[in-house]
């Protein structure tokens, strides 16, 4: 079984949901891991991690990189 690997750290769950949806459009199953300890701000507690399976890391990283580059 493959492990989940973080491919992007996000400032909010909304941002992570946006990128998760984008990856799933390309057929990549993505997970969101939010470290929200006792109501601490997400950036203080580690933020929100967007994760994919090991075998999808390369493809997901390329998709995310292309999405962040200005046209």
Automatic annotation (TrEMBL):
Pfam families documented for this protein: DUF2007
Domain DUF2007, chain residue ranges per copy: 12-68
Protein name, entry field: DUF2007 domain-containing protein
Native source species: Bythopirellula goksoeyrii
């Amino acid at each position: 079984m493959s492990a989940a690997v973080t491919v992007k750290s996000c400032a909010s769950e909304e941002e992570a949901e946006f990128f998760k949806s984008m990856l799933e459009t390309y057929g990549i199953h993505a997970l969101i891991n939010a470290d929200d300890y006792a109501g601490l701000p997400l950036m203080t507690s580690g933020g929100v991690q967007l994760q994919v399976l090991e075998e999808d890391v390369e493809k997901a990283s390329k998709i995310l990189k292309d999405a962040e580059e200005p046209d």
